[in-house]
C-alpha cells in the first residue's frame, strides 16, 4: 500500500519480466525475450490468464543456435459497450495477436502494425481504450503508434511526440524516452542525463490526442547518480510520486520512491525498495479491505 506494507504476494510469475498495469485494477506480468505472461487480479488473487512462451523461430540461419522471439505485451480495457479487457502481443517478426480475457478464446491474429515496433522501448500504455506504443528505434525518438482495442485496428496516423516543441540542440541531449499513465493521462518522460550540465527529467502530458498536442507539466532536477524517473501518480496535495532508479542503466544500485514538490522544486525519499526488486514499479488501483 502507500505506506510500504506488502498486501499480497504472487509466486511463480517468471523471471526478469516487465510489469504493465491497467488504469484500474489488473496487472500483466511478462517474461523477458520469448517469455510468457500472466494477467492477475490482485484483489482476489486469481490468475486470469497464463500465456506460455512463444515458440522459437523455425528459420534460424544457424541450426545450432536457437533464437527466441522478442515479444511486447500490452494490457488494456476497450472503450466499447462491453469494455472488455484485452491483451495484445507483438512479436519481432511483425505479427500481432489479441486475446480477450474471460471468453475462453485463444490468441487470434490481428493486422500487423504499419511500422515495426521495437521491443526495448518499455510497456505500451492504454488510455481510453487505445494502446500507445513508442515506435521509434532510437532512444530519443518519440512517435507513438496507436492500437484501438475495440476495433482491434491500428490507427493510420502516428502521434508526434513533444520533440517538435523543443529546440533540436536540446533534444539531441535526450538519453531516454518512456511513456506511462499519470492520473488518467498519457505521459512521456524525457530524460536528459550525464551529458548535460543540469541533468533533469521533463514530463510531458498529451493534452489532445487528435491534434497531437503536448503540455510540459514538470521539469525535475535529477542527481547525477539517478538513472531514470518514472512518475506514478499526482497526489491530492499536488506532489508527484516518483519511482527513481539510482545508478546507471546497466548497473543500478537501488530503487527509491520519491516525492517531488513542484512548489519547492525538491525531491524527498519516501522509502527504499527491497534489494531483490526488479526495476519495475506500477500503480494499480484496487481494493482489498480499503483503498490501496
UniProtKB/TrEMBL annotation:
Classification via InterPro entries: F-box-assoc_dom_typ3, F-box-assoc_interact_dom, Gal_Oxase/kelch_b-propeller
Domain (F-box associated beta-propeller type) ranges: 84-224
Alphabetized SUPFAM superfamilies for the sequence: Galactose oxidase, central domain
Domain of life the protein comes from: Eukaryota
Name of the protein this chain belongs to: F-box associated beta-propeller type 3 domain-containing protein
Source species of the chain: Aegilops tauschii subsp. strangulata (Goatgrass)
Amino acid at each position: 500500500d502507500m505506506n510500504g506494507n506488502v498486501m499480497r504476494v504472487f509466486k511463480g510469475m517468471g523471471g526478469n519480466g516487465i510489469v504493465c498495469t491497467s488504469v484500474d485494477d489488473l496487472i500483466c506480468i511478462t517474461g523477458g525475450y520469448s517469455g510468457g505472461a500472466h494477467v492477475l487480479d490482485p484483489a482476489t488473487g486469481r490468475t486470469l490468464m497464463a500465456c506460455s512462451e512463444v515458440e522459437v523461430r523455425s528459420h534460424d540461419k544457424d541450426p545450432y543456435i536457437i533464437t527466441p522471439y522478442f515479444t511486447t505485451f500490452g494490457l488494456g480495457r476497450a472503450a466499447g459497450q462491453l469494455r472488455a479487457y484485452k491483451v495484445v502481443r507483438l512479436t519481432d517478426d511483425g505479427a500481432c495477436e489479441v486475446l480477450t480475457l474471460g471468453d475462453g478464446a485463444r490468441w487470434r491474429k490481428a493486422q500487423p502494425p504499419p511500422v515495426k515496433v521495437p521491443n526495448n522501448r518499455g510497456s505500451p500504455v492504454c488510455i481510453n481504450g487505445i494502446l500507445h506504443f513508442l515506435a521509434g528505434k532510437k532512444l530519443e525518438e518519440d512517435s507513438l503508434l496507436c492500437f484501438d482495442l475495440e476495433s482491434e485496428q491500428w490507427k493510420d496516423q502516428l502521434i508526434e511526440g513533444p520533440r517538435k516543441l523543443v529546440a533540436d540542440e536540446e533534444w539531441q541531449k535526450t538519453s531516454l524516452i518512456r511513456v506511462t499513465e499519470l492520473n488518467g493521462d498519457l505521459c512521456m518522460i524525457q530524460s536528459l542525463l550525464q551529458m548535460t550540465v543540469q541533468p533533469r527529467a521533463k514530463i510531458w502530458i498529451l493534452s489532445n490526442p487528435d491534434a497531437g498536442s503536448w503540455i510540459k507539466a514538470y521539469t525535475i532536477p535529477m542527481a547525477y547518480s539517478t538513472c531514470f524517473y518514472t512518475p506514478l501518480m499526482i497526489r491530492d496535495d499536488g506532489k508527484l510520486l516518483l519511482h527513481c532508479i539510482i545508478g546507471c542503466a546497466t548497473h543500478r544500485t537501488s530503487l527509491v520512491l520519491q516525492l517531488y514538490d513542484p512548489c519547492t522544486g525538491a525531491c524527498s525519499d519516501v522509502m527504499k525498495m527491497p534489494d531483490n526488486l526488479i526495476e519495475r514499479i506500477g500503480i494499480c488501483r484496487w481494493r482489498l479491505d480499503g483503498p490501496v
